[in-house]
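Field log, afternoon session.

UNIT: design team B
ACTIVITY: writing a sequence onto a fixed backbone
BACKBONE:
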């Protein structure tokens, strides 16, 4: 009986220790992401180093490699976190009286995206600067695909969508294409100009207009 109790206590102790280590690991991972996001407010993305981020986060560089293999891995994780933030904003309902037809939703979504970029310099650096490593852009496609599904769900709240292509996601392309004028503005001016915002809306309307009729049936 004593042996059984002793073993039971040992198991519980191990679980507590494991949980503590896991919580500490989650905290350190968050510290590293927070530090990278903060540093991108002032640093060009190509100057961000893993060593600098570790120092800013107060996490030993050797320990930081337990959470991210390299700076590309870190930036990909940061992009996923920011994409979740964008998706949350995109999912917010729009007043029905403000939506005359689907082009109004395009304008709202572009405006929301621009507001988020302006609020999150790190997002602007990752997606609009033109300097993000190709490895990060490629890995980040999964995050952007999740955001594109959020856009489609928003459209489906207001309109009955026609049959859409199955082999590619038009809302993913919408995100990529509307970012182009914004990216050119950031590269040329260091900021998103109103002209770029207006062009992004035209691009979005034009592209989706090849799939969605203007008189799209509304959801009752």
């Amino acid at each position: 009986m004593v042996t059984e109790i002793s073993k039971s206590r040992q198991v519980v102790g191990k679980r507590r220790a494991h949980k503590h280590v896991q919580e500490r690991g989650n905290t350190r991972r968050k510290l590293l992401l927070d530090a990278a996001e903060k540093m991108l407010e002032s640093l060009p993305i190509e100057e961000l180093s893993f060593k600098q981020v570790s120092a800013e986060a107060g996490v030993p560089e050797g320990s930081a490699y337990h959470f991210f293999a390299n700076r590309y891995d870190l930036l990909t994780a940061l992009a996923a976190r920011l994409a979740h933030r964008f998706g949350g904003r995109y999912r917010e309902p729009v007043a029905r009286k403000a939506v005359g037809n689907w082009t109004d939703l395009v304008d709202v979504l572009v405006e929301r995206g621009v507001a988020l970029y302006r609020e999150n310099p790190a997002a602007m650096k990752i997606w609009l600067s033109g300097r993000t490593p190709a490895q990060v852009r490629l890995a980040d496609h999964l995050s952007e695909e999740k955001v594109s599904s959020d856009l489609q769900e928003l459209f489906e709240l207001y309109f009955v969508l026609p049959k859409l292509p199955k082999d590619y996601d038009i809302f993913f392309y919408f995100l990529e294409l509307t970012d182009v004028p914004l990216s050119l503005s950031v590269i040329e001016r260091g900021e998103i100009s109103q002209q770029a915002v207006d062009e992004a809306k035209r691009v979005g309307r034009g592209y989706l207009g090849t799939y969605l009729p203007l008189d799209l049936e509304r959801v009752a």
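LOG NOTE: Confidence is low (pLDDT under 50) at residues 1-18.
NEXT ACTIVITY: expression trials, pending approval
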